[in-house]
Amino acid sequence: MRPSGESRTRRTKGGRRKKRKRRVGRWIATGTTLCLLGGAGAGWAYYAHLNGNLKKDTLNLSATKAKKTEANAAGQTPLNILLLGSDSRASEANQKLGGAKGDATRKPLADVQMLLHVSADRKSMTVVSVPRDTRVTIPKCTGTDGTVYPATSTETINTSLQHGGPGCTVATWEKLTGIAVDHFMMIDFSGVVSMADAVGGVPVCVKSNVHDKLSGLKLTKGTHTIKGQQALQWLRTRHGFEDGSDIGRTHAQHLYMNAMVRQLKAGTKLTDPGKLMNLAEAATKSLTVDTGLGSVAKLYGLAEDLKKVPTSGITMTTMPWGADPENPTAHVVPTAAAGKLFTLLRNDQPVDGKSAGTDSKATAAPTASAAQKAGIAVTVRNGTSTDTQTPVSGRAAEVADKLTSLGYAKAEVDDTLVSRSGSTVEYPSTGRQADAQAVATSLGLPASAVKKSSSVKGITLVIGADWTTGTTYPKTAGSDTKQTLAAAAAVNASDETACMKVNPSYTW
């Protein structure tokens, strides 16, 4: 058996080891953000031991994979991480926390699923939860043991974990969203309890007394700091909040995660060496990651990357959904608003309306002279196609003709169809920024639509799904993003006033 953190401390000499242990504490405190986005280590031998604890699996078990988003002008790429909560009862600890010992041999379900989209410039993060009862197309997956699971469109997304493991859940998300997933992290019941204990509890709020006998959650009206099994009850209850559906549960999970983020960003620290070692053991034993993330060092590097995102830049959302026409009482399906949300993320555009990859200092240029316009070559592309909207025919030619009439004699059409939720004017180098701004001003596009891009060779106007008619950019187009936000029940991580509405049938 490995020595405890206390006994190791007695045998170390000098301040160097103590300093290392303090550094380890910072690693773990960072890593607890957003349900285990990091790791810990304490000495090389113990580091190897923790690496051995980690369970690793294949990232994607499907032959078809989503296309990765291109790098921005600075060479940065977005980061997409799928967080999964498994209801596995395989261990005694999980049986004690989750009940149903008869399910010990059942393949686990992924009842909690959240996609973390971190913008290329690391200035924003959008978290998208999907209700576990969402009926989706689960693609054909081949397990690491060679078992082939045929594609199906009749099952719900939480069952995708039973089609070979987390790699099939990743494949299902890529099929659903068109977003390439870089990593996954899956945690079980006991890991959630350990996390809550490690940070000293997480503050949550309820608008009235709540008691859900099925999950065991019982709280009085107001704010409470929950940890241990009570934290698990909060995250698992699907009856106690709002209308008693899985949707209310995702909102409660967002409130919990936002509170944890605020604590850690504010400087919450784990200072007890014994607790740190216990956390490291519990965390790594309860965590399964993809092979590309399969070491404590890589987990720490990921946590350091995520630290760059400010709290105000983190937005929690739930996939917009509607009743499943094939089973309206039991299942839900994504709506058109969900397609718009996924398109925003594929294009690395934050759902809070702030433009990722945009020069924040960019301002609309004054109207260009006739000579300046005549010298600016502009390529126009049709980007009005989305998952839920077919491309609007002729848009590129229509707007190119408008540019020509405005004096841009070198305006031309590129017939290559692209998908873009928001219209942009892209330029290849800083020296061309003024030209891009002139084009934007001429067509009524806001300064935020002007973006530097390494994927274009000249000034390129992409007409997005927010501009499907007319030759002047509609002033109300920004409201489309606001509608998507509303449909996704968006909550910013800096909002400390969030409080859960209780299901009237579960008050006491």
Helix and strand composition category: alpha/beta
CATH C-level name of the largest domain:
Alpha Beta
Alpha-carbon distance between the two ends? 48 Å
Instruction: Name the shape in a single word.
Output: globular
Annotation, overall tally of beta strands: 21
List keywords for this structure.
508 residues; single chain; five-stranded mixed β-sheet; 16 helices; Aminopeptidase; eight-stranded mixed β-sheet; disordered N terminus; 21 strands; 18% strand; alpha/beta
Describe what you observe in this structure:
This protein is an alpha/beta fold. It folds into 2 domains: 44-351 and 489-506, 3-Layer(aba) Sandwich (Aminopeptidase), CATH 3.40.630.190; 370-477. Helix content is 33%, strand content 18%. It is built from 16 helices and 21 strands. It has helices at residues 5-11, 14-31, 33-36, 44-53, 92-98, 166-177, 189-198, 228-236, 246-265, 273-285, 296-306, 336-346, 370-374, 395-405, 433-443, 478-487; strands spanning 55-57, 79-86, 110-118, 125-129, 141-142, 148-149, 183-187, 202-206, 210-212, 217-219, 222-226, 287-290, 314-318, 321-323, 332-334, 377-383, 410-414, 424-427, 450-452, 459-464, 491-492. Strands 1-12-7-2-3-4-13-21 form an 8-stranded mixed beta sheet, with helices on both faces. Strands 17-16-20-18-19 form a 5-stranded mixed beta sheet, with helices on one face. Helix 2 crosses helix 10, helix 7 (189-198) runs antiparallel to helix 10 (273-285) and helix 12 (336-346) crosses helix 16. The chain is globular and about 70 Å long. The model is unreliable at 1-14, 17-42 and 355-364 (pLDDT under 50).
